[in-house]
């Protein structure tokens, strides 16, 4: 079953990590996988381009079915293997609603983080503006405060959408972990830190933890002053 799946992925990429967590949660260990280097431009290699003309990671194939977008791949895995492993989408309509809400809110968090973390990497030096950096950081800070507020309203030990680990966690945890790796203050965001500490010990997360994060636990502290 899992042997007919292949995942091309990059270490530390939240979208890649989502798919890997979902595979672990659905007990689909044993899938084929290929770790590629963004620095070496391996995500533009022929095997990836053959199934993903965007040349992006993750790139995922199950038999003859290709699902490269991380949200799509994770929802596909849950739908195809509902009775296997962890149920990631609850049956209750009310619970489903919150799971889907938090899942798709993650896209806003992801974009606002990218606007800050990748600004100096993607914008040529001559086109950078301090006002843009300030504006992007303020937008990200407000977004993180929103998520901090969500957890403040929940019981201690809660996951992103309640007392059970769900697809909402598959989506948002990699982004939260990414934020702390880039220097997010534990003191300013204590509820996010509690959530981070809770989920990072989960077996699916440990099994898929980015290899280079183990070698260098702390990244650049781009977010330390948020």
Automatic annotation (TrEMBL):
Residues 92-218 form the GST C-terminal domain. One of its GO terms (molecular function) is glutathione transferase activity. CDD domains: GST_C_family (cd00299), GST_N_family (cd00570). GO terms for cellular component: mitochondrion. GO terms for biological process: glutathione metabolic process; L-phenylalanine catabolic process. Keywords: Transferase. The keyword Transferase applies. The keyword Ion transport does not apply. It comes from the Eukaryota. Residues 3-85 form the GST N-terminal domain. This is Glutathione S-transferase A. It comes from Acipenser ruthenus (Sterlet sturgeon). The lineage of its organism: Eukaryota, Metazoa, Chordata, Craniata, Vertebrata.
């Amino acid at each position: 079953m899992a042997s007919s799946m292949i995942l091309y992925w990059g270490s530390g990429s939240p979208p890649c990590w989502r798919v890997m967590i979902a595979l672990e949660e659905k007990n689909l260990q044993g899938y084929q996988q290929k770790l590629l280097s963004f620095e070496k431009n391996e995500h533009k290699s022929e095997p990836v381009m053959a199934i993903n003309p965007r040349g992006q990671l993750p790139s995922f194939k199950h038999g003859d079915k290709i699902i490269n977008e991380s949200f799509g791949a994770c929802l596909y895995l849950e739908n195809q293997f509902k009775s296997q492993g962890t149920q990631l989408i609850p049956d209750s309509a009310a619970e489903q609603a919150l799971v889907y809400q938090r899942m798709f809110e993650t896209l806003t968090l992801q974009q606002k983080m990218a606007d800050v973390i990748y600004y100096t990497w993607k914008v040529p030096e001559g086109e950078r503006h301090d006002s843009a950096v300030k504006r992007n950081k303020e937008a990200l800070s407000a977004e993180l405060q929103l998520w901090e507020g969500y957890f403040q309203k929940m019981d201690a030990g809660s996951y992103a959408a309640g007392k059970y680990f769900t697809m909402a966690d598959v989506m948002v945890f990699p982004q939260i972990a990414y934020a702390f790796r880039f220097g997010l203050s534990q003191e300013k965001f204590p509820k996010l830190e509690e959530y981070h500490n809770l989920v990072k010990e989960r077996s699916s997360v440990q099994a898929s933890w980015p290899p280079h994060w183990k070698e260098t636990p702390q990244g650049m502290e781009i977010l330390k002053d948020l």
